[in-house]
């Protein structure tokens, strides 16, 4: 397990995941299509019926018209939106953690080009399942001038709410007190959630059981492409781009979210 890294006192920490540079399928599912009529129809279905119905519709369209996601996607527009969302939120002297699935079947050159367009000097990476270039750790050298750290999993210190019970099972006390505690950073939800099949993809346990974090404490993760930040339990939060309007999440937002989630858990217990 990696230890904490230096904290930059002059900036805020931000977190995001699943930028999926170069990925036609994700570009389409997020609404970046190269045909205006198709894009408008897809957007209308999303607005009126939700993401799931829109995803079903566009997948049926691809099959019925014997086309491909690559043929109908606007990958460049999707990449631009992801990078613009980051740059509009994160300052140059801030710290940005990218929690995996940065690109999909891209060359190193293209991935680096996208990353260098991010206007932040302190980038850290957690490896996701689509990050093929990072599976062999000697490839880290290819990105050493972009990322300050590259890990499968890491824990960092964050001022998080003190829970009512020493074992961390109870919710936030009425008078909220924060203290520095370790929070896990992972691309994947916790292993216990995969085993329970809660808040994960159906085949996650078979594919990623060895990669999922075993921690039962605080956790920040992505991977699921869900439309809301809800974690698999009150001690975790999903910071994927799909859950936060294609923008990174600040440490302050994360603390506020986890505090509210544990207050809600207290009311239902």
UniProtKB/TrEMBL annotation:
What name does UniProt use for this protein? Ser/Thr protein phosphatase family protein
| One Pfam family, short name | Metallophos_2
Question: Which domain of life does this protein belong to?
Answer: Bacteria
What is the similarity comment for this entry? Belongs to the metallophosphoesterase superfamily. YfcE family.
Enumerate the spans annotated as Calcineurin-like phosphoesterase domain.
72-240
Record-linked InterPro entries: Calcineurin-like_PHP_lpxH, Metallo-depent_PP-like
Q: What is the lineage of its organism?
A: Bacteria, Bacillati, Actinomycetota, Actinomycetes, Bifidobacteriales
